[in-house]
Amino acid sequence: MGRAWAVLILLVAVLTGCGVAETGAAGASAAESAAQQAAQAQSTQAEVRKQIDAAYQEDAERRRAADTDGQ
Fold first, then answer.
1. 13: which of 31, 40, 61, 64 is 20 to 30 A away, CA to CA?
2. Is residue 8 part of a domain?
């Protein structure tokens, strides 16, 4: 009877270990995906900021040109 319990406990431990390993791998994969998404979001944010800055610069140049033409 003691041996049966030992085998049962060992079997449960092995199966539990596999589940923990899968959970850890899934968690690592999800974290990597989140990191990639964050990097992409930062890249997109930087690109949008560049476009906004360019639009402000273009607008300032147009206003200067309009002021020069108006004088």
1. 31
2. no
Domain of residue 32 covers 27-66
| Three-state SS letters, 25-61 | HHHHHHHHHHHHHHHHHHHHHHHHHHHHHHHHHHHHH
5 vs 12: CA distance, rounded Å: 10
Provide the strand spans (E) within 1-71.
none
Model confidence pLDDT, tens digit, residues 16-71: 666 665 666 677 777 788 889 999 999 999 999 999 999 999 999 999 999 888 76
The residue type of 10 is: L
Q: Is residue 17 part of a domain?
A: no
